[in-house]
Amino acid sequence: MSSEGRAPLLPTTSIPREDLDSTPRAARTASSSSTSRPQATPRRPSRLQSILNTTRDEARAPPSAGSPRLPAQPLSPSYDGLLHNPRWTVRPGKPNLWARTRKAYHEELAEFLGTALILILGAGVECQGRLHFDLAGHDYSAGDYNSGRFGWAVGVALGVWIAGGVSGAHLNPTVTISLWFFRGFPARRVIPYILAQILGGFFGSALAYSNYHHSISVREGSTSSRTVIGPNSTAGLFVTFPQSYLDGDWLAAAWSEALASAVLVCAVFALSDKGGLGVPKGIMPIAMFLTLLGIGSALGINTGYAINFARDFGPRLFLSLMGYPSTVFTHNNYWCLWGPGLASIIGGLVGGGMYDVCVYTGEDSPVNRIGRGQGGEIALETEEEEEE
Known about the structure:
Blueprint (H helix, E strand, L loop, with lengths): L16 H4 L26 H7 L2 H5 L36 H8 L1 H26 L13 H19 L9 H11 L6 H31 L29 H22 L12 H16 L9 H13 L5 H32 L24 H5 L1
Subcellular location: Membrane
GO molecular function: glycerol channel activity; water channel activity
Protein name: Aquaporin-like protein
């Protein structure tokens, strides 16, 4: 697969083993031939031997300085240390079939898993808070509106942590399309990204549903019947609908989705702008957590702030397989298509355009396109130069 359009990957630093562990394994030698197996290394002393032979100074010594410890610290897969065995990383030969397949679809798989995390925690917190009232005779529930906002925001943050170093963590068709229009994201990658996001929404909602299917059946009053509307309906735990008090004002519902999406894309563009404040490396998930928490707290009540077609349509596909009627798609005049779909995308494009008009100076945006006949040389940064 061509590397065109990929987000820069997190750099992998090669650290000498002697710098990572002050007591490395002895006799680490290997044949100079690339086809021969490395020589066996002697075993470490047993714990009983260590107890018998440990000196006073060794007993008081702290763990090896600089030696990484999973999972608190990342390390190279081939690192050979006290708490990590490189196992088959030293074997010669070609990668297995799945490793080669993942290489071909690495970005899409990251989008799939990141979007799934959004639904696992987002739909999960809706089920936990809205299905469990008066628990064990106590007059309280397992959550409220604010806990729901936290759950969705944490889901987005974890999704960004998972996918950010591989795909850029779009996790949202509105973000993908906005990046294509304003930031040069390759058009040929748009549809694969969106399909991966929808599948992630399907899978994540399936896992959340499997965790709460007993409570869903209790609310529905049946293990076989599922409803989209009504006092005991449960579809709204996974997908969004306009509030009844909007009284059929579809323009107001679409505006709510568009406004929230505009804020989202404007924030995404600002956080990823090298010419602005940006965010330190590794802090983007926290910034997105705060962004989603703010949007949900301020702009979420009218429509449930889907602001993400994959997060809304993927669960609808799953619910249709679980016995929910076709109104899961058709309710509110096909809200799922023109609300989280069209209105969200238009709002995102407007929000991204506003940021570029008012703030962004990069010439990869159509707002700052160089006119014809201007001449001059254009310096293009490679991924390696940007990482440095």
